[in-house]
Amino acid sequence: MKSREIPVSLPQPAFPGADWGDCFETLSDDPALLAEAAARRAFERMPRWVGGLMALRNLMVKPFGLKGDPDKASQGGTRVGIFPIIRNTPEQCILGFDDRHLDFRIVVETQSLPDRQTAVRMMTLVKRHNMLGRVYLAAIMPFHKLIVKTTLSRVSD
């Protein structure tokens, strides 16, 4: 199944301060899929083109004093790909970090369905701190949606 966008209502318990959010959903044929495993399928090995976009992003934000490389931005702790795990339960894995311009969370949720499939939702929640955060979010939006759909498709494969 291709992913589909579903509505997000704010505030969200996973990140009550968020002022922006989106969510995409897909189905997996793995009836026992847990949230962290779904997040790992999505983010552990990103496509090469995503790495290129992230390298470009890091160069562009450096003059503004923003965190360029999330690996260097937050030390220690367990990660899924480049993202630190903030909270983790079998049904919900929350990833993300905070910066001067915005804070973000990626919430990966799984829900077992009666037909032996698992619904997998990937929600992005953002708290913008200033005009730079608003401009940044607007600038990355087309890339964000493409990356989310691509990473979520890796969960259902």
From TrEMBL:
Cited Pfam families: DUF2867
Superkingdom to which the source organism belongs: Bacteria
Descriptive protein name: DUF2867 domain-containing protein
Taxonomic lineage from the root: Bacteria, Pseudomonadati, Pseudomonadota, Alphaproteobacteria, Hyphomicrobiales
